[in-house]
Amino acid sequence: MNNRPGSILIVDDEPHNFDVIEALLTAYDYELNYASSGQEALESLEILEVDLILLDVMMPDVDGIKVCERIKAIPQYQPIPIIMVTALSTKEDLAQCLSAGADDFISKPVNALELRARVQSMLRIKQQYNALQLALDRQSVLEAEKRELLENRNSELEAEVSMRVATLKSASEMIMHNALHDALTDLPNRRLLLQQIELAILRSYQLDNYGYAILFLDLDQFNIVNDSLGHIVGDQVLISISERLKSHLDDVCLLARFGGDEFVILLEYITNIDEVIKIVERILNDFQIPLTLNSGEIFINVSIGVVLGNTNYHQAGDLLRDADLAMYKAKAQGRNSYKIFDVEMHNQAVKRMTLETDLRHALDRQDFIIYYQPIMDILNGDRLVGFEALVRWQHPTRGIVSPMDFVPIAEETGLIVALDSWVFNEACKQLAQWKIEFPDTSSLKVSINLTAQDIRQPNFLANIDRTLAETGLDGKSITLEITESMLLDDIDTTIDLLTQVKSRNIQISIDDFGTGYSSLNYIHRLPADYLKIDRSFVNQIQEAKRNHQIVQTIIALSNQLELAVIAEGIETSEQLQILRDLDCEFGQGYLFSKPLSVQEIKEKFML
Questions:
Q1: pLDDT for 155 beyond 70
Q2: Structural domain 353-606, CATH architecture
Q3: What topology is assigned to 190-341 in CATH?
């Protein structure tokens, strides 16, 4: 195959226009030739090997359309792509160009990005044509050889040669198909999808009123299917879903398997967002119907991100990035839903990525401090019994960052393990120091929050033992707070681990009780010491209200399980009195104190 960069003939009666095009294409090392008229162009074609013609429409003697018709009328010049360069923009004018045999067109004034993209596209087409022609020539040679063999050999050899040619052709077609399609579903794959999106971007520059959109689909919790039913059934589900999705699309839409359980749909020639939404809603409604497989019925939900193409997009990857981001927003707002991309999503993603990077640096620099909120014995004169350790991030430029902003990121990235380990060590050191500095505080305890990721660490117990040894604290000075949701994953292992924690005299508190998924099947088996009533119940605890009954029930349950109760979020004297009347032993909240720094704790409670 010829590997030269490409020979381009520029036909224009204005030499200045040649200079402009030459300047725009100078970086690509193309061989540029110039003809000032249609007749000169035909004469140049007789002596030059041309791969592409850039043909001006408006010329004085013979216009570009007539020149195009003359060139395309000559068989040997028909394969040469022609791009019309025109200031005309009506559909009728463009249709006349295409009717004359032009392969593409560029609007004046010439845009550099558009010129380069279209030139590269047409040259690729010409190269592919040359390769095809070479293959055909080779095939012609084979056919000639076959005819010679047929003249000299019997019919058996003729059949053998014919079979060989058919096999080669079939193998070539199969290789090309496999390179552009998914092996499991036979849908277009990522490579073909990217090519088609790039073409859609080019069409959006070229055609008036041309609209397109990208739908990014992700199956919700598909890993559960593979884990519970096996990958063979999972593959059957993917095949069934691909067939179901195709039923909602017409011939101008492309459905591709992007990878794993992700599919992408390219919608073309759309006129408004309502068309897109109708298709999305039909797909979501269809997913309400279970899939029927040999193993039975399976319900699969899907989250869809939608992005509308516009002239700001120049690369397929940017469209897929934004559609993927919208899909994750849809997944976050609830299963079987969709979200349309907007610029604010991108800004939030950049902000989150920046915050994650800063968080990693903050762990290295230890840009964190611990605030302590007092826990009071509300049945015995509001006596101080301990503190809950609450981490705060001192960002170098943003100031104090709320835990609501950085803790979810830490949990998603796994950084929460290192952060919680630091909090545990620092809180234990601080309590040990207070006990030495203020002997009257010897009975105080510190409550420290844990996540599910913390207790799954293989060195979890070893780290606790090391910290107790280094600080000299007895385990009875520490309470570990765990949420109800942590208990759902492998409850038997969790109970065994907490039992080992209890053997070190450390107490266990079930945090945010009533907001999770507790079951009496295992609550009574937990080696817990406290139930902590969530602040959402305390905020609306007025008598005769539903929350009053819930709190009363939790306290009654704790009495049956021989657990103490801590109410958090106490903000008014009325709330405090109701909790006392219900025999709630302990409480914390702004009525007693907001979370305080170490110095504030010393000044308010110890000096």
A1: no
A2: Alpha-Beta Barrel (3.20)
A3: Alpha-Beta Plaits (3.30.70)
